[in-house]
Amino acid sequence: MSVPSSSKYLIIGAGIHGLSTGYHLAKQLKATGAGSGADITIIDKSGVAAGASGIACGVVRNNYFQPAMSELMAANVEVWESDPAAYHYHEVGYIALGPEGQVGDLTEVAGRHEQIGYPSTLITGEDAVREHMLKLFPDWRAPGLKVALHEHKGGFAFNVESMHALAAKAKGEGVTIIEGVKVNGFELDGSGAVTKVNTSEGDIECEQVIIGVGPWVPRIWEMLGLPDKLDVRTPTGDVHKDQDMWTFWYLQEGEIAVDPLMHATADGKMPPVLHVDSDAPLYTDDGKLVTDELWGNYFKRDRHGIQGGAAPIALDTDFELDPYPTSSVDPAFPDMWCASLSHCMSRFEGCRANYKTARSGGVGSFTVDNFPVFDYMRPNVYVIADSNHGYKMIGVGKEVANVVLGGNSSLLHPFRYERFATGDLHPVSNSPYPWS
Fold first, then answer.
1. Residue 432: HSE in the Cβ half-sphere, 13 Å Cα cutoff
2. What's the rounded Cα separation, in Å, for the pair 396 and 399?
3. What angle do CA 417, 420, 423 make, to 5 degrees?
4. Helix (H), strand (E) at residue 150
5. What is the mean pLDDT of residues 27-32?
6. What would the pLDDT profile of 114-172 be if each residue is shown by its tens digit?
7. Which pairs with CB-CB distance under 8 Å and at least 24 residues apart come from 292-299?
């Protein structure tokens, strides 16, 4: 399919954000009589689910210390729940467990869940945590965990299938999706608005541009002439000069090839997604010390076994995204992650022999404070920079559609770009993960 010479709404990126925005924008145009899906074109340099959305671990959770993230994630979960069959979504819940140092954080998260009506159960005290986990998993054996937050919503979805379902929904509303179209640049008028997008298949005139390209956003950011360094004001009024707008982190994820049904709850049901942070020494099954510092893992049952990961690795700021790495991890990761599974449950003892290199992980482009930027960055260019929080945020496109059509979004407002200049930053938790 050739690119059109013009499109009223041009969306760049056919991952979670581009597809969701296209679908919800088309629905809202139709509902208000302001247009239809025929006014919308989505382009992608590769194809639907070809990037980060297609290799995401697929976890959907609301374990966020930041109030704005909690409220936004609750709205995203509602979208996942709106059509779980099409989205291949499994509402199995999510449990975060931590040592003494995370009791305060998870207690605050539980309080925010209660305030917004998001169902979860907080368990504190080592004995109570162990009892809660043993009821679910009789072979649970992770020591020293002092807090657990059990979300009764959330869970996981199958990545590629959910993206193709979104694409089908968008096409069903009349949206055009064109694959294999690379953006080469933008033409601006005197006000800084984009009048034309230069692509590998020809120029496209447009009235509104929405950017949803995941980890490739720094490249588009540069094409738009936006700064790669900025001064960041902290909530206390201090100013940190010349901070990198973007940093790259290499996600560490893998699989063990086992019978998926071996990972079930005591009553035979599909288990919740588990996330464990621990300060207990971590050993391999043969007694080799992996680490005696704070470590973390996350894992879930998948179609081919158990999938999950651990904390990412920081990369140089001049890292190149092409070719996009999708299946290599730090050499120490397989030992660490498999040891952590065995640390948690005896059923995983000896699982290192079943470790499988899988197309998972990849690279994330993180903003200067590791949280998303959702904002107009040119008069008619809305940028969705998810800072690697992306796949679970299926509802961001619904909010963006509201904004593009002239409305407001209280959920997206806390993620405006000007927060870096005003000091209206998000609070930071004690988690070892940059996205928490």
1. 20
2. 5
3. 130
4. strand 147-151
5. 97
6. 999 999 999 999 999 999 999 999 999 999 999 999 999 999 999 999 999 999 999 99
7. 294/99, 294/101, 294/432, 295/336, 295/340, 295/432, 296/431, 296/432, 296/433, 297/337, 297/340, 297/341, 297/344, 298/57, 298/59, 298/273, 298/274, 299/273, 299/274, 299/341
Total Cβ atoms within 10 A of residue 143: 11
The amino acid occupying position 112 is R
SS3 320: coil
Q: Which amino acid does the sequence have at 357?
A: T
Over residues 328-347, the mean pLDDT reads 94
Helices (H), 83-214: 84-87, 103-116, 126-136, 159-172
Which tens digits make up the pLDDT trace of 157-194? 999 999 999 999 999 999 999 999 999 999 999 999 99
Both tokens of residue 416?
């405006």
Whether cis (ω within 30° of 0) applies to the bond prior to 414 is no
Dihedral sign for Cα 79, 80, 82, 87, please: positive
Q: Is 188 helix (H, G, I), strand (E, B) or coil?
A: strand
Q: What does the block give as tokens for 211?
A: 């950017």
Question: Both ends of the chain: CA-CA distance in Å?
Answer: 41
Q: Which two tokens stand for residue 339?
A: 């040891």
User: Which tokens is 59 given?
Assistant: 């976890």
Residue 245's Cβ-side half-sphere holds a number of Cα atoms within 13 Å equal to 17
Q: Which amino acid is at 6?
A: S
User: How many angstroms separate the CA atoms of 104 and 120, rounded?
Assistant: 16
pLDDT tens digits, 217-260: 999 999 999 999 999 999 999 999 999 999 999 889 999 999 99
Q: What is the pTM of this model?
A: 0.95
Contact 148, 158 (CB under 8 A): no
Strand partners of residue 249 = 314, 364
The rounded distance, in Å, linking the Cα atoms of 260 and 270 is: 9
Structural domains in the chain, CATH included, are: 1-91+154-244+369-436 (3.50.50.60)
Query: 3-state class of 372 per DSSP?
Result: coil
Distance, in Å, from the CA atom of 230 to the CA atom of 247, rounded to the nearest integer, reads 13
